[in-house]
Design brief:
Order of helices and strands: EEEEEHEEEHEEEHEHH
Strand content: 35-45%
Strand order of the largest sheet: 1-2-5-4-3-6
Radius of gyration: 19 Å
Helix content: 10-25%
Number of strands: 12
Amino acid sequence: MFTGIIEETGKLISTENITGGKRLKISASKIFHDLKIDDSVCVNGVCLTVTKIDNNIFWCDAVGETLNKTTLANVNHINELNLERALRLMDRLGGHLVQGHVNGLGIITRLIKLGENYSLEVDIPNEIAKYVVDEGSITIDGISLTVAKIMERKIIISIIPHTWNNTNLRQRKIGDRVNIETDIFAKYVEKILLSSKDEGNKFTDNWFKNLGY
C-alpha cells in the first residue's frame, strides 16, 4: 500500500526481456537508506517487487499482465520514473490509499500553465470514469491528485508547483499515456450495492437503525 506522495524520480538505466515479462534496472538516491530485496516500490503507479540492489541501483520485474495494462511496456532511458516506497503503519497518510494496481490508461489532452500552477486534462476510459467524482482522489502515474472537475470522460486537475517540480509530470506532453488508479473505496461501495440486489433491498430504515444510525 502507498500514499501517492512521490519520494523522488528515478532514472531507467536499462530493460531486459525475461520469460513472461521485462526486467527494469533503475537508479535513484533517496529511497535506499532502508530499501531491501522483496520490498515493494511504486514505479509510475505500478507496485513492483525489488529483486536486486547494488549501491544506488535496484532491479524489479514487470510481468506480462502488468506490461499489457500499464505504460511500463514503453518506458525508455529518457523517461523519469515516479518512485515511492510502501507505506509503513507509523507513517502519515499525506495523499490517499494507493494500491499500485493500475485500472486503466489515460491520455493527456491538455496541459497549460496558469500562473504558478498547471492545469492538466486527462481523458480516461469509460469503465473507470464512474469511480471518479469532483474533488475526489485519483492516482496518475503514482501521484495522488485531487480531481477539480470531471466532464464525462475528461478529468481536470490543478498541479501545484511542488508536485510539478518533484514528479515526472514536468516531462509530460499532450498525447502521452499515463497510468490511472481510481480510489479503491468506490469499488467496495459498488460491490456492496450490487450484491444487495441479490438479497433484496435490505438498506431500509430498520436496517440502518439496527446498525445504530
